[in-house]
TrEMBL record:
It comes from the Bacteria. It comes from Tenggerimyces flavus. Residues 3-122 form the VOC domain. PROSITE patterns: VOC. This is VOC family protein.
Length: 139
Protein backbone atom coordinates (compact mmCIF):
# COMPACT_ATOMS: atom_id res chain seq x y z
CA UNK A 1 0.00 0.00 0.00
CA UNK A 2 1.30 3.47 -0.89
CA UNK A 3 1.26 5.77 2.13
CA UNK A 4 2.65 8.91 0.50
CA UNK A 5 3.91 10.41 -2.72
CA UNK A 6 5.92 13.59 -3.22
CA UNK A 7 8.57 14.79 -5.64
CA UNK A 8 12.11 15.45 -4.44
CA UNK A 9 14.19 17.93 -6.45
CA UNK A 10 17.97 17.91 -6.61
CA UNK A 11 19.33 21.39 -5.99
CA UNK A 12 22.70 23.08 -5.83
CA UNK A 13 21.22 25.51 -3.30
CA UNK A 14 18.74 23.84 -0.95
CA UNK A 15 18.25 27.05 1.08
CA UNK A 16 17.35 29.11 -2.02
CA UNK A 17 14.85 26.50 -3.22
CA UNK A 18 13.32 26.26 0.27
CA UNK A 19 13.01 30.07 0.44
CA UNK A 20 11.35 30.19 -3.02
CA UNK A 21 8.57 27.75 -2.11
CA UNK A 22 8.08 29.35 1.32
CA UNK A 23 7.96 32.93 0.06
CA UNK A 24 5.75 32.51 -2.98
CA UNK A 25 3.58 29.50 -2.08
CA UNK A 26 3.57 29.40 1.72
CA UNK A 27 5.22 25.98 2.07
CA UNK A 28 6.56 25.27 5.55
CA UNK A 29 9.52 23.07 6.44
CA UNK A 30 8.52 19.97 8.40
CA UNK A 31 12.09 18.63 8.28
CA UNK A 32 15.06 20.89 7.67
CA UNK A 33 18.72 19.92 7.40
CA UNK A 34 21.44 21.65 5.39
CA UNK A 35 21.35 18.94 2.74
CA UNK A 36 17.59 18.16 2.70
CA UNK A 37 14.33 19.93 3.43
CA UNK A 38 10.81 18.47 3.43
CA UNK A 39 8.15 21.08 2.73
CA UNK A 40 4.41 20.92 3.28
CA UNK A 41 1.71 23.12 1.77
CA UNK A 42 -0.01 25.57 4.12
CA UNK A 43 -3.48 25.57 5.66
CA UNK A 44 -3.78 21.88 6.37
CA UNK A 45 -3.21 20.86 2.76
CA UNK A 46 -1.13 17.71 2.47
CA UNK A 47 0.96 18.28 -0.68
CA UNK A 48 4.64 17.91 0.09
CA UNK A 49 7.88 18.61 -1.74
CA UNK A 50 11.40 17.52 -0.89
CA UNK A 51 14.61 19.26 -1.88
CA UNK A 52 17.94 17.46 -1.60
CA UNK A 53 21.47 18.71 -2.21
CA UNK A 54 22.35 17.13 -5.52
CA UNK A 55 25.87 16.24 -4.30
CA UNK A 56 24.62 14.46 -1.14
CA UNK A 57 25.68 10.84 -0.66
CA UNK A 58 22.06 9.66 -0.80
CA UNK A 59 21.83 10.73 -4.46
CA UNK A 60 23.43 8.23 -6.86
CA UNK A 61 26.56 9.79 -8.37
CA UNK A 62 25.40 9.21 -11.96
CA UNK A 63 22.30 11.36 -11.31
CA UNK A 64 23.71 14.33 -9.42
CA UNK A 65 22.42 17.09 -11.65
CA UNK A 66 19.82 19.81 -11.49
CA UNK A 67 16.31 18.93 -12.68
CA UNK A 68 15.71 19.32 -16.41
CA UNK A 69 12.34 18.85 -18.02
CA UNK A 70 10.67 18.64 -14.61
CA UNK A 71 7.38 20.50 -14.33
CA UNK A 72 5.68 20.90 -10.95
CA UNK A 73 2.09 22.15 -11.10
CA UNK A 74 0.71 24.22 -8.23
CA UNK A 75 -2.92 25.30 -8.20
CA UNK A 76 -3.49 28.68 -6.53
CA UNK A 77 -6.39 31.00 -5.67
CA UNK A 78 -5.09 34.11 -7.47
CA UNK A 79 -2.75 33.40 -10.36
CA UNK A 80 -2.69 37.04 -11.50
CA UNK A 81 -1.43 38.46 -8.20
CA UNK A 82 1.23 35.76 -7.88
CA UNK A 83 2.39 36.31 -11.47
CA UNK A 84 2.80 40.04 -10.86
CA UNK A 85 4.77 39.39 -7.68
CA UNK A 86 7.11 36.83 -9.26
CA UNK A 87 7.76 39.06 -12.28
CA UNK A 88 8.41 42.09 -10.05
CA UNK A 89 10.90 40.01 -8.05
CA UNK A 90 12.78 39.03 -11.21
CA UNK A 91 11.97 35.31 -11.17
CA UNK A 92 12.64 33.75 -14.58
CA UNK A 93 9.41 33.34 -16.56
CA UNK A 94 9.43 30.39 -18.95
CA UNK A 95 5.84 30.90 -20.13
CA UNK A 96 3.97 34.20 -19.61
CA UNK A 97 0.52 34.31 -18.02
CA UNK A 98 -2.20 33.16 -20.39
CA UNK A 99 -5.56 31.44 -20.65
CA UNK A 100 -5.78 27.96 -22.15
CA UNK A 101 -8.86 26.57 -23.91
CA UNK A 102 -8.49 23.35 -21.90
CA UNK A 103 -9.46 25.24 -18.72
CA UNK A 104 -6.44 26.87 -17.14
CA UNK A 105 -5.15 30.36 -16.57
CA UNK A 106 -1.48 29.78 -15.88
CA UNK A 107 2.17 30.67 -16.24
CA UNK A 108 5.44 28.82 -15.79
CA UNK A 109 8.48 30.06 -13.84
CA UNK A 110 11.87 28.49 -13.19
CA UNK A 111 12.67 27.92 -9.53
CA UNK A 112 16.22 28.05 -8.06
CA UNK A 113 17.03 24.36 -8.67
CA UNK A 114 16.07 24.70 -12.35
CA UNK A 115 12.70 22.92 -12.18
CA UNK A 116 9.74 24.57 -13.86
CA UNK A 117 6.73 25.53 -11.74
CA UNK A 118 3.40 25.71 -13.57
CA UNK A 119 1.17 28.00 -11.52
CA UNK A 120 -2.48 27.29 -12.33
CA UNK A 121 -5.95 28.68 -11.70
CA UNK A 122 -8.73 26.52 -13.19
CA UNK A 123 -11.10 28.40 -15.49
CA UNK A 124 -14.04 27.16 -17.59
CA UNK A 125 -12.87 25.34 -20.71
CA UNK A 126 -13.79 26.65 -24.14
CA UNK A 127 -14.33 25.23 -27.62
CA UNK A 128 -13.77 21.53 -28.08
CA UNK A 129 -12.66 21.18 -24.45
CA UNK A 130 -16.16 21.94 -23.10
CA UNK A 131 -17.41 18.56 -24.31
CA UNK A 132 -14.36 16.77 -22.92
CA UNK A 133 -14.86 18.43 -19.54
CA UNK A 134 -18.55 17.53 -19.48
CA UNK A 135 -17.78 13.92 -20.40
CA UNK A 136 -15.20 13.68 -17.62
CA UNK A 137 -17.56 15.01 -14.96
CA UNK A 138 -20.77 13.18 -15.96
CA UNK A 139 -21.68 9.85 -14.30
Amino acid sequence: MITGLFPVLCSTDVAASRAFYAEYFGFQAIFDAEWYVQLEAPDGAKPQLGIVARDHGSVPAAHRRDPAGVLISLEVDDVDVLYSRLVADGVEVALPLRDEAFGQRHFIVVEPSGAMVDVIKPIPPTGEFVALDEAATSP
